[in-house]
Amino acid sequence: NSDCEYRDTIVFNVGVDTEIDFDNLICVGGEFSASSVVDDWSSDHTYLWSSESELIFGSETESSTTIISTTPLGAGVSEIYDIKLTVTNDVGCWEEETGEIEIYEVVADFTISDTLLHCSPQDVTLTSLNNENISSWNWTIDEQDHSQTISDTDPTYIHAFEDKGYSDLTLIIDSDHGCSDTLTRTEAVFLNGYEAEIAAVPAAICFDGSESVTQAFSASITADVSDLPYNVISYSWDILSSNSITALETAIDSLNVSYEFTASGEYILEYLAVIDGTNSDCEYRDTIVFNVGVD
User: Fold this and answer.
1) 202 cis-preceded (ω within 30 degrees of 0)
2) Which of 142, 156, 175, 241 could make a disulfide contact with 179, Cβ separation 3.0–4.6 Å?
3) What are the tens digits of pLDDT across the range 25-48?
4) pLDDT tens digits for 165-195?
5) Which residue pairs from 149-157 have beta carbons closer than 8 angstroms and sit at least 24 positions apart in sequence?
């Protein structure tokens, strides 16, 4: 009155299935990881990691491995490297899985807005050049008398230099992916010192019966290192004493002046030279006290 059904079932595996889990953006010199994700229906897998690019595998025959590249690329250059994993199961079935990794190199470099300074303090702007994928910038400023390290999250840093002489500069940059690079520039910035000095005046400046007497004055600017350039953008001679109305100035040049005096007394003379600076001009001055005539 009805058909009779008889049945059986079997479970079997077809092939092997695998995927690769890896860092797809890495940097030269850093250690990164790659691992396999394999099906759960087969067993006794063997692994073989390989690449036609210049990747170095820490464990070529394990389910997971470290990956490193030590080949320099240069600043602003990135390349695509291939990664391949071959997985074979216990019955000889195998599968290959491939992927692509972008790799870049961290290269520290920077510019210096001014390398020759003329007074203290003077601001200098330091600018990091290669900033893609960079997360921190560490500057170390070694001046003659003190050192300072600044951790920053901005590629530009402004430092006020105070010490005369040479300063060394160091930049350490760290990337988002754990790589770093260091650049040191020795004797990168020089702060020159200067002295303005009025030449000695005669011991006697006498009227000797005349209604006036004329006296020339001269000054000099002496640099600590004399063969380096500087620019005097302005200068002035001034009688600072209250009797300045009796001294008539005749300008000669930036280092020389003449005064005609019409009254005896003690006079105070100041010479001021202004040298072109970076963020502010540099003032150097000297004063002398002298007597004219007899009263």
Assistant:
1) no
2) 175
3) 999 999 999 999 887 777 788 999
4) 999 999 999 999 999 999 999 999 999 999 9
5) 155/127, 155/128, 155/131, 156/125, 156/126, 156/127, 156/128, 157/125, 157/126
